[in-house]
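Batch manifest, entry 17 of 40.
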Amino acid sequence: MEDDAPVIYGLEFQARALTAQTAETDAIRFLVGTQSLKFDNQIHIIDFDDENNIINKNVLLHQAGEIWHIGASPADKAVLTTCYNKTCDSRVVSCAAVWRMPSDWETGSHESPDDSAHNPQTLELLCQLDGGARGNAACVLWEPMGDGKRVISLADNHALLWDLQESSTQATVSSTATLEGKGQLKFTSGKWSPHHNCSQLATANDTSIRGWDLRTMSQIYCIENAHGQLVRDLDFNPNRQYYLASCGDDCKVKFWDVRNVQEPVKTLEEHSHWVWSVRYNHSHDQLVLTASSDSRLILSNMVSISSEPFGHLVDDEELSEGEDSHQDDKSKEPLKDSVVSTYEEHEDSVYAAEWSSADPWLFASLSYDGRLVINRVPRALKYRILL
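Output type: structure tokens
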């Protein structure tokens, strides 16, 4: 099998929640949460054996309800969060909780791989992130590169910063921010910035994007009408502290410098339906993945707005000074942005795409029909970036 060929895994359940296992940097591992109304929902632990190009899976039960969002602790491989729906007094509520995988989930799976599917173990509930009457949970964000002790939950129009204590069995709200304004305001998604000592948060609600200072829980910027329709997802450039990517139901992906929010720095219009997910590569920030209801996953090379626009690392100061002085120097022109690949292995809406935490050239995508596809950055591009 050639190196760049995709590897496909079918979950047999509908699914939209996917995360890389952040604390696992040796094994290539992804976690998928299912959405089933008839059966107990499950977390599928997907291990990719890249030497043999095969997937090994384990299944854990998540009996609390159908999973809408999943997040992995940056510090503890066994700990994760989910946002899930449950029916309560004949109405559906969205809850958030912290879970631990049973300590022996890895043992025994390789002798008889079917065991875990037929007789799966159950996740252990560590604590509920219950904001009381603060509404329906949309997502839970772990502090990037943190010690696994701080999370933010977004519920309706509240952002709650939690401290997890006693090995995550207790959660207390340390501060909150509330979206003020007319109408039914609701956060749809958010991203905790890895920059500024992890003191900033970006959130999406309706067509707007807001930045928050977590020390004061006050708003620091607002991009009104960032998209023509609902904003679905956000991601921070890991190497350029002011750069933020967004995507939405207007089929667009936009890149922002949050110091100047009047106009996006760049707009991508490659998708033909809602864009659900945008993800920067953790090491090589010119590589950007986008996933859409057009059933496609697109890998773009956004080199002109990356930390290596001339093919080498430059800092933000050099970029702002350099714009005037290099006009006549052709060798200093930024490289051209391009679509690297369009992946068509899905036949349903692609709700999520994630880069591996262990291998910077590998990524997974998940469509609603429960199809998980693992792909690699094309080798030619990989070598062009590295050499």
